Structures are given as C-alpha cells and as structure tokens.
User: Fold G-protein coupled receptors family 2 profile 2 domain-containing protein from Mycena belliarum.
Amino acid sequence: MAPQLQVSRGYQPEARAETMRYVFYGFQMTGLLGAVVMLFTAAVWRKIVPRHPSWFNFMITWIISCSSYIFLVGVPSGKNPSHALCLAQAALVYSVPSLTAGATISLVIHVYMTLRSMLSGVLYRTWWTIALVIGPYVPAWVVLMVSLHIGLREPDSVRRSAENMYCNLKPNLPERLSAALVAAIMLIGLAVELIIFRNLWRAWGTLKRDDRNSASRVVRVLAFTIVGMLTIILSLIFCALPKHGAAFDLTISILPLSSVLIFGTQKDIITAWGSICRRRTHGEDTWETFTPVGTRLTVTEE
Assistant:
C-alpha cells in the first residue's frame, strides 16, 4: 500500500499542472470565441450595433492576444515545440500586453472625445480616429521586432515556460521593454480617466437632462475603464516579474472573458441576436448605443 500511495502523490503535481494548463487554454479560447462573435455581430448588424473603429480595434487586439497564448494546445507537455513556432509565440506573448493596453487607452480616449463632443457640440477630426486605431500597434511592433531579433540571434534563449502553457525568452530585455511601454501607457490612461471623471462630475446635471440614458453611459465608462486599467496593471506585473506561477497565468486568461462579458451584454448586441431567434428583421437602430453616429470615421470637425 505504501508504494502505491507514494506513486499517487508523485503524480499529483503533474496532473494538477496539466489541469491548470487546459483551464488556461479554455479561458483563452472562450475569450477568443466571444471576441469573434462580438466582432461579427457589430460588423453584420451595423444599423443595430453601430460601433466606432476604436471598438473594433479593441476586439481585434483581444483576438490577437487570445490567439497568441494557444499555439501549444496540441503540443504535449513533455514535448518541445519547433523553434519557429516557439519563437513566434514568445514574440507575440511579449508584445500583446502593450497592444491590448494601447487599444484600451484608445477606447478610453474615444470615450473622452465623445463626452467632449456631447458637451461642446464639436466633433473631432478623422485623423483622430486613424491615430486611435494605428497607435496601439506601434509599441507592440517594437517589442515584437526586439523579441524576434533576440530569438533569432540566440536560438537557445527560446524555451517553453515552466508551466508548459506557452513559450518565452530567457533574456529579460523584452520583458523590461514591454514593462516600460505598458507603464507609460498606464500613466496616460490614468490621466485621461481622471479628466473623464472630472468632466462627468461637472456635467452631471447636463447629462441628467439629456434625452439619452446618461446613467447607462456612465456605468459603461466606469466598467470598461476599470477593466482596462486592471488589464494594464496585470500586464505590467506579467512583464516585470521574472517568474510567475500558473495561478497568475490563469488570472491573465480571465481578462478577455471580463471584456466579453462587459461588452457582450450591451442591450443592442442582445437585441441583434434576439432578432435571429425571433426571425425578425430590424430596419433601423432600435437601441441607444455607446458610440454616437456622429463619431464614426467619416465625421469631420465642425
């Protein structure tokens, strides 16, 4: 009996690690599926679910982020993936924190510009929209190129993580670079959020008299800005810490689900899918949406 107990205990950590590995992949794939469904919904039912390009970009960055973590789904824990596959994943894993953080801040800036337009009646120019869409990819591209350069110059630095969930690099330069970029983005986001909250506080009386649902708008602003800041903070911790366990990886994998739940439960998205179930076609916008029609890509400043 004693030898059997020892063998059973010896295999428990491996079984637990394998379970956490598949839970991690499950969260990432669920977040990926949810983001794809939301992107599809907004693209197909544009009249019911109008969204700003920064919102589409936000969803695309989460699709990229979730996809980057599931490269090794079909690779057993005891087997080393190919160098090309492992390097590609490591480079993406280091670059997606700044990508999702930048997309989140772009969405926050869009909220600020939308609120400013509502209060002043002045719409912002098209180049603002272009900057909000392209901006998040600039720091991510820098981290991606640095990671690929290190991985190609030092092939032995590319390795599978201790938890066997994804690949990473042994040098800490990509980690430090990504951490610095995310920290800078975080400071910008904090500043913009303070301005948003100040404007909401000062204009609360005006918003209450507005015929739009001001309370719902404020809740949405608070919800996704809080989740966005959590994303940035956790991404910063991920990049700064040289070692982190499977529990932290699972926490990271829950973030896409949080974004999907916040954005996927909006009334207009539910209405769009409800129309399929009822086999009914909507000809015009039915529900108020977060993004006013006046802030789309074709709008110019008055």
